[in-house]
Predict the 3D structure of the following.
Amino acid sequence: MLTDTAATRAGGILTIDLPAIQANYRRLRQELGDVPCAAVLKADGYGLGDTVVGPALRKAGARTFFVALPDEGIRLRRALPDVPIFILGGLFKGAEEEYLHNDLLPVLNSLEEVERWAALARQKGNRLGAAIQTDSGMSRLGMPDSEILALHENQEILSSIELRLIMSHLACADEPAHLQNREQLQSFQRARRLFPEVPASLANSSGIFLGKDYHFELGRPGAALYGVNPTPAQASPMRPVVRLQAKVLQVRSIDAGRSVGYGAAFRAKTKSRIATLALGYADSFLRHLSDRGFAWYQGIRLPLAGRVSMDVAGLDITALPEGSLQPGDLVDILGPDQGVDELAAQAGTIGYEILTSLGRRYHRIYRSV
Ligand SMILES: *Cc1c(COP(=O)(O)O)cnc(C)c1O
């Protein structure tokens, strides 16, 4: 029985295990050997709450942080007053003073951004810190070789900027045999040779498991910290971090032939028992899981029945002994039997999307010991 009154009012209960995140951080540190390890906290700490997860990771030893947006950096700065925070999205136009004001370091992704940051530095009469990103093959963010070369030759600009990091991002790190990993490594090595004094960083979660060549001077994991498997071809080296429980609202018995949910998309083949769960697509419980996702109760796997609707979803509990599940009871959507990667596979997506779409209506519990 639930005794926490907030939990009694919620449809879904999300428990986030901070010591598991810290253990995952230490596991990645171990993989990196002597190389320090940053933490990526973009998208509200991959949906888990950046201002809670950030300090937990700092306690575990993280000293460098990355987010995507200046807005995220400003929020995280309040929770972490004394660490470098890099903004992966670059130097947002019109927001330059906010970076200074909140002590945020842009990841400069183009020569234009470098020039804009250098101009601000000259105006302030100070050198300003920043990272530069090279495009080593992903064609997403970062400077192509021509811009890196031009930057290398522009002493005036370089005298205005304190280069804190040179970085790039891997497209295929979760596929160790993919040829592009080596190609991107070589491209990045060429770029970083031009700036030999500047610490370099290439590896995201999966990149850390590609071996020492990819480690440089800083690891940059996100997903693995939060329990996503960085080595999808093998068993996960990471600890699960989230548990999501859904509350049973009703249990009903239906005859063969009776339908469940919108569109009558599910029809019972035999006499069945259906539990109606208090979670739906408004919780970002993906509608794509309709008739293909599973929940778990006491070690038994139970299939969703019918379409996921806005606030509720049907679960076929015929496999359970009658009376074993009552209104108010909780079934596991994510938990010991089914992790983010498994639920993602059922929905045809990746663990990253499961985490970052965890609903705002869930009652959240942070486990801290
Ligand atoms: C998101 C991101 C990371 C972290 O990636 P994971 O796969 O979550 O470890 C690292 N670097 C950059 C540039 C990113 O955008």
Q: What stands out?
A: The mean pLDDT is 96. The two ends are 22 Å apart (CA to CA).
